[in-house]
Write a structure and sequence with these properties.
6-stranded antiparallel β-barrel, 2 domains, alpha+beta, globular, 9-stranded mixed β-sheet
Length: 324
């Protein structure tokens, strides 16, 4: 097992808005070239990256995770030079109040409510980012409409837990990277496709076109699921097989073959987490979902446990070489 806490720190440091995943794709490419040098790497027009590990048989299994994260996006600036923004995904703007804002182009600022109140609303239209601009023209020159931003914080490692911006959003990427390293050099029964999908956090479901092209015999999505107060999905107790999340029910053959505790869970609020298996089920591919327990989804302090990442990768390595 590689240093998963370092991998999570690395991934959290990359701002990867929907349809702006080039930097994280470069990180994945470099990682795979080192950890799985025999793997073939390809990408499609939507920015989805697929890593192929050839197996001896004629069956193919696809493992997928989204590479993007929920962000805010610049709409405009007001006459006072404060950036106004909208939401792409499920970031909690009330939890981001008075946090540092990190723009994808390197600009920094502070997320502030426009009006003082005893309670903080959860409406992006009622907030702005103060970047120290002298006026509207100066602000827009530094952060043009469409520029992504997110609440920023340092990454905190406490024992096996890692907390920071987009940590839960990118937990699935860490699982697939660990699985690639573990599978490299093994004799594989089935061909394995590790698909790092773009635009998952806004429901574009770009893994669907990848599945259409590859026609896998089975697929598994890796997503974050909220830690359950009933202790069904506590951090550190390992990943789970999601039987149903929102309107989507996993294929029971895939769900049971994963060999993980089965839960029915509410999605974290990210569209990707609620409909993970749907992109494959709609293509006629038996599919299931592996959930990584997380805390504080949609904030700058998303928290996961590295032991759950490692256990999920191990389970998937066993799954891809088994019967399903």
């Amino acid at each position: 097992m590689r240093d998963l806490k370092k991998i999570l720190r690395d991934l959290a440091a990359i701002v990867s808005p929907p349809s702006g995943e080039a930097k994280i794709a470069e990180y994945i490419r470099n990682y795979i070239k080192d950890a799985a040098p025999s793997a073939a790497i390809s990408s499609d027009a939507l920015g989805t990256l697929t890593v192929a590990l050839k197996g001896g048989g004629d069956r193919t299994v696809m493992l997928t995770a989204s590479t993007d994260e929920s962000v805010f996006a610049v709409n405009d600036a007001d006459v006072e030079g404060r950036i106004r923004f909208a939401s792409l995904g499920n970031l909690s703007v009330s939890a981001a109040a008075y946090c540092e804002a990190e723009f994808e182009n390197g600009v920094r600022g502070t997320i502030v409510p426009i009006e003082k109140s005893d309670t903080l609303p959860d409406d992006p239209l009622k907030y702005a980012v103060d970047i120290g601009a002298s006026g509207k023209e100066d602000a827009v020159s530094k952060a043009a409409p469409g520029t992504a931003l997110r609440p920023s914080s340092s990454v905190l490692v406490n024992g096996d837990t890692v907390a920071g911006p987009s940590v839960a959003a990118k937990a699935g990427v860490a699982v697939l990277l660990e699985a690639a390293a573990a599978l490299s050099g093994r004799e594989l029964k089935n061909t394995v496709l590790l698909t790092f999908a773009s635009q998952g956090k806004v429901g574009a479901r770009s893994a669907g076109p990848a599945a259409e092209a590859a026609r896998p015999d089975a697929a598994v999505c890796v997503v974050a699921v909220p830690e359950d107060g009933s202790k069904k999905t506590p951090l550190g107790d390992g990943p789970v097989a999601v039987a149903a999340a929102g309107p989507v029910v996993a294929d029971p053959r895939v769900r049971d073959a994963l060999g993980l505790p089965v839960v029915v869970t509410e999605p974290t609020g990210v569209q990707d987490d609620g409909i993970a298996a749907a992109r494959f089920l709609s293509k006629g591919v038996p599919a299931g979902t592996v959930g990584i327990p997380c805390r504080y989804a949609g904030t700058a302090r998303e928290t996961v446990d590295a032991r759950d990442i490692a256990a999920a990768a191990k389970s998937l390595c066993e799954f891809v070489n088994g019967e399903f």
